[in-house]
From TrEMBL:
This is RHS repeat-associated core domain-containing protein. It comes from the Bacteria.
Length: 214
């Protein structure tokens, strides 16, 4: 991986193994090239977009910290992400179910395949905007499902004079089992927060109440 300047010239090189341990990009060995901050060049992002914490030498993965040297998170996962349908979720410290070549964990909570539904997700959102004048990635106050922010972000929100329809886009792997339960809970959380009079979601959108979109 290269960090380039505005002229396209490489000003920094980075390389990682499958669990995020730094390696020398020139020979692939574990003795990585020393990283120095030159002038105003600041590169906070590292392995899979995590932020490098120089004090602890670990990665900040939004929900918790990840230690690449041992391939484990330093704090336990939330119990809501344990499912009897998948015994691998019972290990509350594992990273990507110990299969980092197959999965990524962008938030420290849930694993995905790198390109899982990304293209379909974008196409559906673009269609909703053009045809229904929908809002996409709409912030819902009080709707954070992962507990890392005040706001949750609904994939699609279609507003009418009386109500708003909220849609959450998921790949086919969420059609059943523990992932379906997770997706349903996420959507219900958005709707509950949207309808909660303590927040200003309905006033901002102009609807009287929200309902689930299918």
């Amino acid at each position: 991986m290269y960090l380039t300047g505005t002229d396209g010239a490489a000003v920094g090189t980075y390389a990682y193994d499958e669990f995020g341990r730094t390696v020398n990009p020139e020979n692939g060995k574990r003795d990585s090239i020393a990283y120095t901050k030159n002038g105003n060049i600041i590169q906070p992002l590292a392995f899979t977009g995590y932020q490098q914490d120089e004090m602890t030498d670990s990665y900040f993965a939004q929900a918790r910290y990840y230690d690449a040297e041992v391939g484990r998170f330093v704090s336990r996962d939330k119990e809501r992400f344990i499912y009897i349908y998948n015994s691998k979720t019972e290990n509350l410290y594992s990273y990507s179910e110990n299969r980092p070549l197959n999965y990524i964990d962008p938030t420290g909570n849930i694993i995905y395949t790198p390109l899982e539904g990304a293209e379909a997700h974008q196409i559906l959102q673009e269609y909703a905007v053009v045809i229904f004048d929908a809002k996409i990635e709409y912030p819902i106050e009080g709707g954070s499902f992962h507990g890392t922010d005040k706001y949750g972000r609904a994939d699609i929100v279609v507003v009418s004079e009386l109500y708003a329809e909220i849609y959450e886009i998921k790949p086919v792997t969420y059609a059943k089992g523990y992932r379906r339960i997770l997706a349903d809970n996420q959507l219900e959380n958005y709707i509950s927060a949207f309808n909660n009079p303590e927040y200003s979601n309905m006033q901002n959108m102009g609807g009287d109440y929200s309902r689930e979109g299918y």
